[in-house]
Automatic annotation (TrEMBL):
<dbReference type="InterPro" id="IPR003774">
    <property type="entry name" value="AlgH-like"/>
</dbReference>
<dbReference type="GO" id="GO:0005829">
    <property type="term" value="C:cytosol"/>
</dbReference>
<comment type="similarity">
    <text>Belongs to the UPF0301 (AlgH) family.</text>
</comment>
<dbReference type="Pfam" id="PF02622">
    <property type="entry name" value="DUF179"/>
</dbReference>
<protein>
    <recommendedName>
        <fullName>YqgE/AlgH family protein</fullName>
    </recommendedName>
</protein>
């Protein structure tokens, strides 16, 4: 159903609309690492009911949402951001988009209200693939790969809207997929 592009660091992976694995149904994943040893990314549109202030005492009043990044290492907290100017750290994933960074500078920036929800996203867990696994799944049409997008899509808070925008971003050939119902059997 989808086009096949080579995934790379910074790519968006967009799940096929009727994916059988419920953990990735209508998911958009930011691929933060993709190399000969495997791949790592974060589901961008699976918001939890947990806020970052509930997990980190120094910023207990912060209401930034936390997303379920994937089924691996769900006891760990991760983040992506667009504020290298504040954190002076993080691994560049795409232009003006960074994975991780200096936690002390992050906490200070949040305490000083210098960083906003449309500049950072927190995740519990991540999505991972072993060597060749992601390429196999792309060849099986489980994922579409999008390499050209505006980085602000990463920080979109509405999960269904994010998935639809990512599908539409694949071009006119795929835009109709954005209107597929989540549960076609209910139509």
């Amino acid at each position: 159903m989808f086009n096949e592009l080579d995934p790379q660091k910074g790519s968006l992976l967009i799940s096929e609309p009727f994916m059988l694995d419920p953990r990735f149904l209508r998911s958009v994943i930011l691929l933060c690492d993709h190399n000969s040893e495997g791949s790592l990314g974060f589901v961008l549109n699976n918001k939890t009911n947990v806020q970052i202030g509930q997990l980190l005492e120094p910023i207990s009043t912060c209401t930034f949402p936390i997303y379920l990044g994937g089924p691996v290492a769900q006891e760990s907290l991760f983040f992506v951001h667009s504020r290298f100017d504040l954190l002076l750290s993080g691994e560049e994933v795409a232009p003006n988009l960074y994975f991780g960074g200096d936690e002390e500078k992050l906490i200070s920036a949040i305490q000083q209200h210098e960083i906003k929800t449309d500049e950072i996203k927190f995740f519990i867990g991540y999505s991972g693939w072993s060597t060749g696994q992601l390429d196999k799944e792309i060849n099986e049409n489980s994922w579409a790969v999008q390499n050209k997008y505006h980085h602000q899509i990463i920080f979109e808070g509405n999960g269904e809207l994010l998935w639809k925008d990512a599908i539409i971003g694949l071009g006119p050939k795929y835009a109709h997929v954005a209107n597929f119902p989540q549960s076609p059997e209910l139509n």
